[in-house]
Specification:
The structure is a homodimer of 337-residue chains. Chain A is built from 15 helices and 12 strands. With 337 residues, chain A is α/β, with parallel strands linked by helices. In chain A, the strands form 3 sheets. A 6-stranded parallel sheet of chain A has the order 2-1-3-4-5-11. In chain A, helix 8 links the parallel strand 3 and strand 4. At the A-B interface, helix 4, helix 6, strand 2, helix 7 and helix 13 of A face helix 4, helix 6, strand 2, helix 7 and helix 13 of B. The structure holds a DNA duplex (30 and 30 nucleotides).
Chain lengths: 337, 337
Amino acid sequence: MSTIKDVAKKAGVSISTVSLVINGKGYVAPETREKIMSTIQELNYKPLHSARKLATKMTGNIGYIVWDVHFSEVEIFYSQIFLGMEYAARDSEHYILLTTVKEDFNPKTDLPRFLKYRDVDGVVLAGRVPHNLIKYLEDQNMPFVIVDYGIPGKVYNSIVIDNFNGAFQAIDQLIKSGKKKIGFVGGSFYHPSIKERYRGYKEALEAHGIGNIEYFNNYSFIKEEETSPEIGQNGINQLLKNNENLDAVFCCNDTTAIGVMNELKAQNKSIPKDIAVVGFDDITSSSFCSPALSTVRVPKLDIGKQAYKLITEIIYHPKETPQTRTISVEYIKRKSS
Amino acid sequence: MSTIKDVAKKAGVSISTVSLVINGKGYVAPETREKIMSTIQELNYKPLHSARKLATKMTGNIGYIVWDVHFSEVEIFYSQIFLGMEYAARDSEHYILLTTVKEDFNPKTDLPRFLKYRDVDGVVLAGRVPHNLIKYLEDQNMPFVIVDYGIPGKVYNSIVIDNFNGAFQAIDQLIKSGKKKIGFVGGSFYHPSIKERYRGYKEALEAHGIGNIEYFNNYSFIKEEETSPEIGQNGINQLLKNNENLDAVFCCNDTTAIGVMNELKAQNKSIPKDIAVVGFDDITSSSFCSPALSTVRVPKLDIGKQAYKLITEIIYHPKETPQTRTISVEYIKRKSS
DNA sequence: AAAATATATTAAAACGTTTCGATAAAACAA
DNA sequence: TTGTTTTATCGAAACGTTTTAATATATTTT
């Protein structure tokens, strides 16, 4: 492996000048620059990151933290966001270090190694994440961005999904296709996204003069736990028991919707003729299940890209006030509605 | 942030001695060691990785490469293996850098950045991966381990799944439960795992005196492409057309099995009464679908752990001859069989 | 008692960069 | 002309470790 020294010697200049060229800083005569560039090519020289990092006191790493349950079980949603970040970081100077944390995270004992050793320049937190972790990052003055989550009353640098409008659109479409008795099946409101989706559901119904307090009472099933197909299964049973005329269900996400569809199929209801089903997220399996699930597409790769962009902006140009960037979503009509 | 210098000064010893204590090398008097340890605690000193790496010429990183299609679309299989590695690496000295490559990978243009800059001490390749990438690693003398893949006629350091026995067991169970006409639905034999699963299927049938050439001809559907639910759908239709007496299907993996089940349900066949279905892998959705899918559980986290163990062994103690370590699997009976 | 070996500590070199400050030539302004 | 600013280059210090080789003392062997 050749070093900057080799390049300098071969090009007949000093180490400093080579460094200036590599980093595009200071004044370097055009011919000198050319000469150095071609020497770099010739020797196939690549700066050694550890040396560079030592000198600059940057780590060149960005941490990506996701709750372990979200990473392992709730499908591939947060992995796709990670991948979007990775794509964005590929041609730049960062590596993304992925790790998971437990729900009962304890900063004293469970700190990800890259935080303990300050081996990252910044951190992206994806989805519901322990609040004491956020606090830790604040205390440590570690730059961070929150993706698809938020804490009521607090404002952080974050990337959020336009959950309200996504839900609103979906319900609007259902109503326009003739559905009138539209149920909601959802999970944990700890997650503000789900709360927002419910708000979109309600306001769309109200906008069409359909929803009112009684309606929402009868047609909503909300269970305060992590979403899963089981919640969908229980939810649809509950709704059917209380409302014989139910003709559509809007689910807080695709995972739940799949549970709903399985249960409906088990009961020999026809989807969407008897009951239409709509999800949210557009996870991989939603287009595979049968009938293919109508849903609201969340552009996961793009979210990752935006998260990367924001965290790097913050690292290099600390913002005075926190930024919130909203990612818009799109209703995807498939066979289930 | 305190440095080794601060520790040395406060403990009243030289930098070298502190370094020896940190790395557990050389001779250090017990009292001195104690003193230094407590000083480290007091100052909350953490060695700076970039400095350490510069001195040792190690990067402290391990690359994890997976074909992009496998990462994004074929469920969470390879993400779980990654997570297993991450768990194993947590308390040690490595970070795992995850990246994906395209199928038509070109070493000249598509090289992952961590390879281009030699920012990893070793690499783990998961699943089907471009052969020219493997060649590149060999040429570069970069230590690597292949997980769940292999190239006929070549032997590499690798972690493989006991596909043969898994399939054998599954078929054995099906036969013992009274099934006689067992079909096989599978995808790309480019992937040796699938080939092995097919071999397990055949030999189990032969062992029971059931299978013969004609039988296998009639009851096998093999499509040379990436596995997907569609293959399952097409496969089961084909098998049903040619064999009215079909009473079970063994699928090369769960993704395919889900396609088979969906199609059977659409045709109002009862699972498992009319036709039993068995998959392979035990991906998350296999326990969620209805009826819950019987399958062969592949311990993904454990595979990741073993991969980490092997690559670190190779990095620190290069092996003369390549190691192949086999991970055993377990048949999981659920409702679909 | 002398020689050899094991234990303990350290100064200094090395790892490969970036960056600060110095120096000097070239361009411009008065 | 002289003085100032801009352009160009470089030597040397700094970043925080590990490691080598030197030195010194304590212990064991002969």
